[in-house]
Specification:
By secondary structure, the chain is α/β, with parallel strands linked by helices. It is built from 7 helices and 9 strands. The protein binds adenosine-5'-triphosphate and magnesium ion (MG). Adenosine-5'-triphosphate binds next to α1. The site of adenosine-5'-triphosphate has 12 residues, from α1.
Length: 216
Amino acid sequence: MLLRMRDVSKNLGPERILQGISCALDRGQSLAIVAPSGVGKSTLLSIAGLLLVPSAGDVVIDDRETACQDDNERSHLRATKIGFLFQHTQLIGSLRAIENVIVPARFAPTATQKLSKIEIAERAKKSLTALGLEDRLYHYPHQLSVGQKRRVATARALFLCPALIIADEPTNDLDDANAHTVVEALFRRVRSGDAGLLFATHEKRLAKQADTILYL
Ligand SMILES: Nc1ncnc2c1ncn2[C@@H]1O[C@H](COP(=O)(O)OP(=O)(O)OP(=O)(O)O)[C@@H](O)[C@H]1O
Ligand SMILES: [Mg+2]
């Protein structure tokens, strides 16, 4: 199984944010998380993406139990298996768009070891171009609109062709045409059976595209 969460709960401060959440996702499948603002969608995605440790319950990524893993093991699993599109994009301000897209390769060097630097740059250019950003390759995040930043972050999340794609409100701040482009990019590798997609959204139309919807 690509992702399995069993009875996951999370306390943040004195509050219990998530309680007893279970779900499963395999390659070729998509799962939408739908809930009102503040209920815990981003928290749940962070736990699935091994960025947060649950207070109880466990998370399995590609058949590996993560509960007993140390930070290095979790980081390795995250870098090699997971592409994360953050709700607030989290681009690195000191890097140009194309350099931001390539960042995942730094953390998973074996994934691109057969590619030259030029080939890596070409791959990043191609993905940014596919997202309509061919004239923004060398802009810094502060020179980009919010929707452009989201598209750069999408290219970064997909750069290493991760088995598990996690996207937190991927269509926020995008017009219909760009939302469609981003959603297509996220679903393409799900349809080919190479990846599973876990995403959070407020948009009913987008949620309905998923095989399964989990309401929190
Ligand atoms: N570090 C933290 N310490 C304490 N509480 C937190 C922390 N981070 C988040 N929370 C609380 O956890 C709850 C869930 O937050 P989360 O960001 O997961 O919600 P969400 O469903 O993604 O909301 P939105 O749709 O607005 O993005 C919120 O009530 C928030 O205030
Ligand atoms: Mg959120």
